[in-house]
Amino acid sequence: MPSLPICTPIINGQAHHSYPLSIILNYEYYFPWFYSNYINLYWQYDGIPLDFCYAAKLISNNPWNTYKGLPILETQVINWDILSKCNVNIIDFIKNCIETEHYVDLSINELYCPYSNAYNEYDFLHCIMIYGYDDIAGAFNVLCYNNIPKLSMEKLTYGQLTIAFESLIKLSTNKLGSDIHIITKRSSYCYPIDTKLIYKRVKDYLSGENYYEQFRQFDQPPMDYLYGIDVYEGIIIYCENIKSESNKLDLRIFHTLYEHKFIMAKRSEYLRKQGCLIEEWHIDNEFNNLSKKCLIIRNLAIKYNITQNIDIINKIINQINDLKQNDIDACKGFLYLLKK
Q1: pTM of the predicted protein model
Q2: Judging by beta carbons within 10 Å of its beta carbon (0-12, 13-18, 19+), is residue 85 exposed, middle or buried?
Q3: Which of 14, 70, 97, 135 could cross-link 102 (Cys pair, CB 3.0–4.6 Å)?
Q4: Within 100-230, where are the H helices?
């Protein structure tokens, strides 16, 4: 019953971050790389509104192939069209990957997955990550999003996986949908904590610099996004629009905002323990307070979606405005304390 190491990462709201980080954050020797990254945010008006900036968005032909921008992981991408022409059995293929210490990330139709809201109800194409199997139970161990939806470790029988994958192949209108990502970690990779990079990224966050300018050689950076501290403007405009349209709020926005402050707190604590922050005061406490405020805002968003009470939206907007100034103050304090 082979099973590869997996964890629930502190970024868990979006699969394109949570799946690779569920591998990386098993190992403390990768923490310096993690805490030197995942600093900036962007806001877009189409697609997922609020997200962490990540390199693969520009350097990959598939923006959801986050693995390509992660130097810690070695990734192979192969399209099922090629494997199927070689008469490869998908179950045997995945098991062979696991036995050679490779995780497998692929998309399936969750209409056939008991853990999903879509089960027996409607077609829903989404990715999962497979990290183990059990021949006695005839099932794979999968990392996925359950019916809450929340990142979860579930079982998927060989039969369910086969049907769900075959259905995906039939329904997918995009060739990238049948790509299979085979992932393993680079055990020899070493990355010391980079306070110079952290300083630049936090400074860019405060000034709203376009994160993707540094990747111009791969593609034109998006010019209609908001970056860093300016994402608050996008959130407020979004909330105002929700008021006039009487739609539900996208809870992912408020969860990502919480994750960002929570990670800044963990980053500050880690740097302080590594001797990279001046011990004048514990800036991690300030970011922890910000993360608690974000949880309150997220809970208000949940309450609004239930009640549709406009007063709650107004309260969210007011608290977002306050949070922005608190965030600016905390980040300036962080830069003051950081030893470059």
Answers
A1: 0.93
A2: exposed
A3: 97
A4: 158-171, 195-207
